[in-house]
UniProtKB/TrEMBL annotation:
<dbReference type="InterPro" id="IPR018062">
    <property type="entry name" value="HTH_AraC-typ_CS"/>
</dbReference>
<keyword id="KW-0804">Transcription</keyword>
<keyword id="KW-0805">Transcription regulation</keyword>
<dbReference type="GO" id="GO:0003700">
    <property type="term" value="F:DNA-binding transcription factor activity"/>
</dbReference>
<protein>
    <recommendedName>
        <fullName>HTH araC/xylS-type domain-containing protein</fullName>
    </recommendedName>
</protein>
<dbReference type="InterPro" id="IPR009057">
    <property type="entry name" value="Homeodomain-like_sf"/>
</dbReference>
<dbReference type="Pfam" id="PF12833">
    <property type="entry name" value="HTH_18"/>
</dbReference>
<feature type="domain" description="HTH araC/xylS-type">
    <location>
        <begin position="188"/>
        <end position="286"/>
    </location>
</feature>
<dbReference type="GO" id="GO:0043565">
    <property type="term" value="F:sequence-specific DNA binding"/>
</dbReference>
<keyword id="KW-0238">DNA-binding</keyword>
<dbReference type="InterPro" id="IPR018060">
    <property type="entry name" value="HTH_AraC"/>
</dbReference>
<dbReference type="InterPro" id="IPR053142">
    <property type="entry name" value="PchR_regulatory_protein"/>
</dbReference>
Amino acid sequence: MELSTAVSEHDGISLACRLTPVVAGPRPVREIQPGFRLFVYLRGWQRFEIDGQRFDVSAEGGPVALALSLTRPAQLVQVAWSEDRMGKLTITAPRDWASALDLKGAGHGDALATFLTGHGNSHLWRLDDDSIRLAQLAAEPPAWVPREALPLYRRARAFDLICLTLSTLALRRDKNTLPRPAQSLLGERIRIFLLDHLNEPLTIDAVAQAVGASVSVVQRCFKELYGMTVFDFVRRRRLDAARDALDNRGVSIACAAFIAGYSAPSSFATAFKKAYGVPPKLRRRQAMPFLEAAE
C-alpha cells in the first residue's frame, strides 16, 4: 500500500504521510506558519533551509527525526532531495499548542520550555525501534483498522510520536548531532542483545560481558544514546509487547502482565498507566471493536 499524502487534523494537530517517489524539479520558496514540527524520515534524504538555517537530513544509516520550533512565520527553501522513494512523515502543531502543556510539572520542563519557545530551535536524532514502529503504523495502518477509523488511528499514532519526542527533547544532549560512530555501534550492540533476550532474566553484568565492555561504559553509553537506563529500556519494551498483545490479540490483563514480566496484575496496571496514560483494561476495551470487526 502506498500513500501519496494523507492528512488528519484534530485539535490543531496535523499528520502528513508521504511514501511516494519525489519528482525532481524546482521547488519554490514558500512561507510556513509558526508552530512545532516533527519530521520523521523512514528512508531517503533531504536538504533545505529555513530562514537561512541549513538542514541536511538523511535516513541512509537508519530512520531519523528532526524536531523544529518556529515562533514566527518562516521562509522554507528546498535545496535537494533523494530521487528514489521518500518515506517521510510530518507532524505539525500550532504555536499556542505548547502553552497547553504542563511543563512546570515535568522533571525537565525548563529544557522543554526553552526549546518550544525559541525560534529556529532544532534537534536531530536517530530513532529507536518504538518510534520507528509508530511512524510505520501512522503511515500504513494495520489492515484490521476500518477505513472510517483511519484518521483517528493516525491521529493517535501522531500523538504517541509527539510524546516520545518530548521525552527525547527533555533529555537531549548539548550537541545537536547524531551519536559518534563507535558509540552508536556499541549502543546498537547493547540494544540488539537486550531485544534478543527480552524474555530472559537479565543482569547488567551479563549485558556488559555479552557486548565486551565494562558495566560503567555500557550504562553511560546507553543512557547518552537512548535517554534511559538499560533496564528502563527493558521495562518499556516488555510493556510495549504487552500493549501490542492487548491491541492486536485482545489478551487478558493477566496474560499481558505475564508478557510484561509482572507477577501481579495490579503492579502491571500501575506501570502501564504511567507509561501510556490509560489503564490496560481501557486499552483492551478500546481495541476490542476493531478486533471483532476484523474477524
